[in-house]
Each structure stands twice: as structure tokens, then as C-alpha cells.
Amino acid sequence: MPIRHLIPRRSPLLLLRTTILQTRPFDRVAVMGEMDFNASSHPQHPKRLVFAPGDIAGPQNDELKAAATIRSAASHLADDIVRSDTSTPTSAMQVELLSHPARAHQFVINPPLHISHLHPTNPLHQFHKWFKDPRIPRSSAPETCTLATASLPSGRVSARMLYFKELDERGWVIYSNWGSKEGKGGQVFGPEYRASADGSVPGDIHQSAALNQGNRWAALTFLWALVERQVRIEGVIEPLSREESEMYWRTRERNSQIGAWASWQSKVLWSVGPEGVADDLDDGRAELERRVKDTEARFADVKDIPLPPFWGGIRLVPESVEFWQGRAGRLHDRFRYVREGQTDHTAEDFKWRIERLSP
């Protein structure tokens, strides 16, 4: 089978020379340079289908043309409809709405989606197929997704946009800074978990993960508007090992590594009350930049910046995966894979039930 590039190559990092092998019938894995992560030689790691998409990004002419073609295909949007400057409905606006039933976006790009178009047993392979759809230009960053987590016991939900970095045969992998209890770190690893870049607050996510004090339930959503598709994943978070986190950490650019050490993510740098501030008052950016300079000085003579104790990867192991495709008249095609047979998320002997959902 021919080798297909997920993303264009760029030196000098060996680990970033990534290609994706054609995966149907799914007996091949992602290759990173000369490093083979086949499960037979590395049984502790699941097979990788995607590694570090977007890290070697760079829009190509053919990708830009593809994006323009897709936008042209979506030109069914009602360009002749006059958009009001106000969101308050008026009688005139209501008449305008009724006279233009296509005012809202209509979905007409895709043909019908049937069960025969889906992978019969594995939603991760189906995701891989959609992810490498040639209609989606790599320059559009298709790895962009929304991660939603919730605090316990309040149940308060928060969400943020980020990039997923790996897809293996267990789930979706994300790397991030988990250092502050004010952010997602506290939700996932528990309210007692804290760590700081200067070491004044000790903590390590790879140790705290074993305490299992946080809310491990989470959701990911991918939206590929150009092809009118989205994927919704719900499941349980499992932390990666330090070894796995370090492997990806070594692929990051040095300034990104410096930034990770300098930032205690989501911790308040500065605030102001209702009374307002003077125009010339510093708003906290200078403090962040000072930390960056201090971190640069700290690692000035260090060739390989070490992995911070509060930085690492997590994998979302799915319990359900929904594939949504837009259709005309809002009669969208929705298929959901639901995990069956095992409540233990570390188990391998489970199967998937496929359901069609009402739009």
C-alpha cells in the first residue's frame, strides 16, 4: 500500500519526521523517523495511528487550493440576504426571515452517510479515516478540538480549545500543562493536586495520577466545518507514563519548552476591581515575560530542557464516539459507537455497538 503523508516534513528533528501509513486493513502503524512503535516490539505501548499532527505544519499551495475549492462548494450560503446590525427581532426582520428560508446555514456538501460507509467494529479507525480526508487541508489544523472536563463535587463544567497529538488503539492523546488547581489540572487530578514551576509547590502529575482523586470523565469534540462533519467522544482519562510524556516533550521547540516552565497555567497573574485601572498600569504581562527571561537564564547552559513535573500527556479512552455529518433540512446523519461488554477501561476484550441517532 502506498505511504501517505499526514503532514509535510520539515527538519531537523528526527522524531518529527512523521508519516502515516495507510491503515486499512489496519495492520500498520505510524512511523516516527527510524523509531518503530509496533506493539510487537514495544508491548507496553498501543499502536499509534497518528503522531504529532500539526507540529510540522506549513500550508502548501495545493492545500490552499483545496480549501478554496471547498469554500466554493459551500457557496450555497445566502449571500444576498441582508444581515441586520441588531440582534433584536423586529417585524421587518421577521418578514425577512420568512422570505428567506435559507438564511441559516444549510448542509449540502456530503452525500448520505450509511452504516456501510463506517468501519464495522472500531470507531478509532473510522476517526482516522475522517481525519485524513483529503478535502481537509492540513493548514486548517484538523487536530484542533475542544476538551471538556468537570469539577467534583460541584459538577461545574469547563472547556478549552487545544490540539490532540496522538491517536492510538486505546484513544486520543493530549499533552498539556496541568500545573494549577485553578485549571483543568485540579479537575482531572483532584483538588489537592498542585505543582509550580519554581518548585515552591511540589507535585508531579505522574505520581498524583495514581491517587485517582479527580474526575476522570471528559469529552472531546472535533469540528471540520469545511466538510460539514464533527466527531464527539466521551470517555475516561488515563494519564500517560513519564516515559511517554518525555518522548513527545523532546519533539517540542525550545521556546515552547521554556514557555511551559515559565507559565503556571490558569493561575491569576493580575486582576482589577470594578473601579477600573489607569491606562498606563501594567496588566501582568510584564510578570509573565520576566518569568520567561528567568527560565531562559535557568536553562541557558542546558541542552535538553527536562520535562516539568506538572506537564504531560493524558489519553481519553472512549466509551462512546459519535460521527455527525450535516445534511439538508437539518436531517443530519448521526452514528454512535457505544462500548459494550466491559466496565474496566484497561480491558481489551470489548466490542462496539453502532446506533443511528435521530438528528
UniProtKB/TrEMBL annotation:
Pathway: Cofactor metabolism; pyridoxal 5'-phosphate salvage; pyridoxal 5'-phosphate from pyridoxamine 5'-phosphate: step 1/1; Cofactor metabolism; pyridoxal 5'-phosphate salvage; pyridoxal 5'-phosphate from pyridoxine 5'-phosphate: step 1/1. The keyword Coiled coil applies. It comes from the Eukaryota. Its cofactor is FMN. Residues 278-305 form a coiled coil. Residues 214-267 form the Pyridoxamine 5'-phosphate oxidase N-terminal domain. The keyword Coiled coil applies. Its EC number is 1.4.3.5. Keywords: Coiled coil, Flavoprotein, FMN, Oxidoreductase. Residues 311-359 form the Pyridoxine 5'-phosphate oxidase dimerisation C-terminal domain. It is an enzyme of class 1 (oxidoreductase). GO terms for molecular function: FMN binding; pyridoxamine phosphate oxidase activity. Pfam families: PNP_phzG_C, PNPOx_N. One of its GO terms (biological process) is pyridoxine biosynthetic process. This is pyridoxal 5'-phosphate synthase. It comes from Talaromyces proteolyticus. The lineage of its organism: Eukaryota, Fungi, Dikarya, Ascomycota, Pezizomycotina.
